[in-house]
Amino acid sequence: MPIDAAKALAAAPRTGELSWDAKDVQLYHLGIGAGSPATDPDELRYTLETRLHVLPSFATVAGGGKPGVTGGLSMPGIDVDLARVLHGGQSLAIHRPIPATGTATATNRIAAVYDKGTAAVLVLRTQVAGTDGPLWTNDAQIFIRGEGGWGGDRGPSARLEPPAGEPDRTLERPTRDDQALLYRLSGDFNPLHADPEFAKVAGFERPILHGLCTYGITLKAVVDTLLGGDVTRVRSYATRFAGVVYPGETLRIRMWHMPGSTRVTVGAVEREDAPVLADTVVEHT
Predict the structure, then answer these.
(1) What φ, ψ does residue 44 adopt, rounded to 5°?
(2) CA-CA distance, 214 to 164, in Å (whole number)?
(3) How many other C-beta atoms can be found within 10 angstroms of the C-beta atom of residue 138?
(4) Contact 114, 155 (CB under 8 A)
(5) Quick check: pTM over 0.85?
(6) Active site residue ranges
């Protein structure tokens, strides 16, 4: 069996050092569409080093190494075909604001392995701490087609009840044709997002946008629209990747704002609002 659940769960955590600087943060922000209009003061806080604020979703690429969706595939007990792998979901807990320049220690382990019958789901947990204590915790849910069926734990359902009523805000955010090519420079070089032939083997008509790019675009929309542009108000952010985005498509982002949290759904406008992000919650002050 390509996935040995017992071996993966028993494996010792892997620890490594992360470091990043303002240039890494700026590149990430540009990769999720920040900087338009280029002279807008609200955008300059994402692009100008002298006033740089770090969007919390930067945590998913900090250090420039392999992201959870591919980094988890090198853990003990995991041996699968990358073409069968999709990013199923992502959750992020922010313990304190992320500095624009930093060095930290990251500890990675497989926190769970679930058997969904026709697929397996790995949960790769990354806990990051600096000299002053914990910074963030990332959980990447990695969906591997064709690797289930061994009779293991199915795991909890990630589905939430749909938000009630009409959204408080609805925005449209276009993506660029080269959005994935720019975003991948922050560290996720999976060929699914750049190589047309690889994308076809994986079952897609052309390369798709990184789910974590859509994740970042969406959080930025919530922060800018409902949180006064204050990145430090975000406490946690979780989503399920419900469908793909092709670079060049427009995202329709719907928000239901409540005290302490915002529910969000995201669809692809050009494909009749085909779901992209679902079960999405931003918790905030």
Answers:
(1) -65, -25
(2) 23
(3) 21
(4) yes
(5) yes
(6) 188, 193
3-state secondary structure of 22: helix
pLDDT digits (tens, 9 = 90+) for 177-221: 999 999 999 999 989 999 999 999 989 999 999 999 999 999 999
Q: CA-based diameter of the chain, in Å? A: 56
Please name the residue that has the structure tokens 């849910």.
141
pLDDT digits (tens, 9 = 90+) for 69-86: 666 677 888 877 777 888
How many residues in the chain?
285
Amino acid (one-letter) located at 2? P
| DSSP code of residue 147 | -
For residue 88, which amino acid is it? G
- Quote the CA–CA distance of 153 and 276 in Å, as a whole number: 26
Which tokens belong to 121?
Answer: 């789901």
**Identity of the amino acid at 274:** A
Half-sphere exposure of 279 (CA within 13 A, CB side): 15
Cα separation, 51 vs 136, whole angstroms: 22
DSSP character at residue 260: T
Instruction: Give the phi and the psi of residue 283 in degrees, each rounded to 5.
Output: -95, 140
**Residues facing 105 on adjacent strands:** 17, 129
Residue 179: both structure tokens together: 């959005």
What are residue 14's DSSP bridge partners? Answer: 108
Asked whether 107 and 83 are in contact (CB, 8 A), the reply is no
Contact criterion met (CB below 8 Å) for 203 and 241: no
Instruction: Evaluate whether 236 touches 55 at the Cβ level (below 8 Å).
Output: no
What radius of gyration, in Å, describes the C-alpha atoms of the chain? 18
The predicted-structure confidence for 132-154, as pLDDT tens digits, reads as follows 999 999 999 988 888 888 888 88
DSSP string, 98-145: PPSSEEEEEEEEEEEEEE-SSEEEEEEEEEEEETTEEEEEEEEEEEEE
